[in-house]
Design goal:
mainly alpha; 2 domains; 3-stranded antiparallel beta sheet
Length: 139
């Protein structure tokens, strides 16, 4: 909001990445097209869509893992990694799926990659460390 100029901007979807529509502070019904700001470049570049697809793949993989379908979980983790490389949750899911499939050496490497990607929360880092240390390949 710029009260000196008498303008406020309202963000458009998705996730406030769309255009910022300018309005007159004195008359909220009065749009100011000349002052409207363009959408974020991530929309046009396709990065937002890739991130959305990666989130969907990761969520699908986590559901598959929960339902004891480690092979599908692994496939979804790999897809998420392709769409959003280096995200620790991709490697974490991959490690869990590989561990469930008995591919312990690969699981250990996936947990190491998850740790190297700096998990966002201490509890996730602790869980990853525990899995990495207790996997048969780590012994």
């Amino acid at each position: 909001m710029d009260l000196t100029e008498g303008i406020f901007w309202a963000a458009s979807p998705p996730n406030q990445l769309g255009k910022f529509v300018a309005f007159d502070v004195q008359d909220f019904d009065r749009e100011l097209p000349a002052r409207t700001l363009p959408p974020d470049a991530t929309l046009a570049s396709g990065e937002f869509e890739k991130a959305r697809q990666a989130r969907e793949s990761l969520a699908g993989g986590q559901r598959s893992f929960k339902h004891k379908d480690a092979l599908t979980a692994l496939s979804q983790a790999d897809k998420a990694e392709t769409l959003n490389p280096g995200f620790y949750q991709n490697a974490m899911l991959r490690g869990r799926a590989l561990l469930a499939l008995g591919r312990n050496q690969e699981a250990a490497k996936a947990f190491e990659a998850a740790l190297a990607a700096q998990p966002a929360f201490f509890c996730r880092k602790a869980t990853t460390c525990r899995l990495a240390q207790t996997s048969p390949a780590a012994k």
